[in-house]
Design brief:
The protein is mostly helical. 79% of the residues lie in helices and 0% in strands. The protein has helices at 5-26, 30-39, 43-67, 76-101, 106-126. The two termini are 17 Å apart.
């Protein structure tokens, strides 16, 4: 643990989150289905995007875990960047929807915004480019 316990745990949490969402995406669930559904995809197109994002997340999560054991991957930064872009787009759409639809569920929406910002921050920390 050359980076310290906090960074070690943060990377594990990012890896496990990505792996879990990758597996859940194959089981017709997880955050990717919600994200791409809210973006406006449905039916077969939604399934294609969910499966693609699930594969990327699963591979990125496994690569992050393996990299913690000094097994490096040249494509890890690209995978993390792709997942981070998905999250940025989702956050922007959520903020636009929040402003457009009003503030009926202010605290619940604020809580979910905070969670998605933490996921984005975690992805950026796990990345050597941004972290």
């Amino acid at each position: 643990m050359k980076d310290g316990l906090g960074i070690f745990l943060w990377k594990i949490s990012v890896a496990l989150y990505l792996i879990a969402n990758g597996v859940l995406g194959f089981a017709a669930g997880g955050d990717f289905r919600i994200i791409f559904g809210r973006i406006g995809f449905s039916g077969g197109t939604l399934n294609i995007f969910v499966i693609a994002a699930s594969v990327i997340a699963l591979v990125a999560g496994i690569a992050i875990l393996l990299e913690m054991f000094n097994i490096s991957f040249s494509f890890l930064e690209t995978l993390i960047f792709i997942v981070a872009i998905i999250w940025v787009v989702y956050i922007v759409i959520e903020i636009i929807a929040w402003i457009t639809h009003g503030f009926d569920a202010f605290w619940g929406t604020l809580q979910m915004l905070a969670v998605h910002l933490m996921v984005l921050a975690s992805l950026l920390v796990a990345s050597k480019k941004f972290g």
